[in-house]
Write a structure and sequence with these properties.
Dihydrodipicolinate Reductase, domain 2; alpha/beta; 249 residues; 2 domains
């Protein structure tokens, strides 16, 4: 029997990509497609909920999935550590799996992993992220995740002078994040790491969202069905080959 999926936000750009990927996956079927005005009650009769809605609606989707006892895969941006903490009691009480993927691109996941390793060796870390002008939230979920992981890996806060000035960007886990919204851009993130006499720049560009996201979507959908508890990041389901390198650094 196929795994029945409810896709929330199916009419959006990312939702459309996810729909095509799931339709091509053996053993899965999109049984329900929901828009912003549709009732979430139908979530109760599926095996997996995939949320590709909006930051404003995403929390309701997760809470409805938890109440129904259905695992959820969140593809919507805006899930910071603080926001995850708000739904953690409901998710844990329901005993469901909640998988949150800030970015399905394998290159982006690798870029964040490299920034996490490098962030321990530089006093200054700043993130500049660019997305299309229609993206309704900032900073991006990828930038938030990158900042949180870099801060977690460090023993001391980054050097970020003059953070009282608005032009210095939004502070995420103590790291300045600068968001650009421009027409003609899909997604770009640059992590700038600076120390005495040198700067390391880690840049990831998405030039074709459908091609870049599809492999990660397939991995995440398969993993989310049997997931337990709250899992954040595609890196939990793929071997980036960095653990040994990080242990030796």
């Amino acid at each position: 029997m196929a795994t029945r999926v409810a896709l929330v936000g199916a009419s959006g750009k990312l939702g459309g990509i996810i729909r095509r990927v799931v339709d091509d996956l053996d053993g899965f079927e999109v049984a329900r497609t929901l828009g912003s005005r549709d009732s979430l009650d139908v979530i109760a009769d599926v095996d997996l909920v995939i949320d590709a809605s909006t930051p404003g609606a995403s929390m309701d989707v997760v809470r409805t999935a938890a109440a129904a006892g259905v695992n959820a895969l969140v593809a919507t941006s805006g899930w910071s550590a603080e926001r995850i903490a708000q739904v953690r009691p409901e998710v844990e009480a329901a005993g469901i799996g909640l998988v949150i993927i800030p970015n399905f691109s394998l290159g982006s996941v690798l870029g964040t992993a490299l920034a996490t390793i490098a962030g321990r060796f530089f006093d200054s870390v700043e993130i500049i992220e660019s997305h299309r002008d229609t993206k309704i939230d900032s900073p991006s979920g990828t930038a938030v995740r990158t900042a949180e992981l870099v801060a977690e890996a460090r023993r001391t806060p980054v050097s970020a002078p003059h953070t009282d000035q608005r032009a210095r960007g939004q502070q995420v886990a103590g790291i300045p994040v600068h968001s650009l919204r421009r027409p003609g851009v899909i997604a770009r993130q640059e992590v700038l790491l600076s120390g005495p006499g040198e700067t390391l720049s880690l840049v990831h560009d998405t030039v074709d969202s459908a091609a870049a996201y599809a492999p990660g979507i397939r991995i995440a959908v398969r993993a989310a069905v049997d997931a337990s508890g709250i899992v954040v990041g595609l890196d939990h389901f793929i071997d980036l080959g960095l653990r040994a390198s990080e242990a030796q650094a």
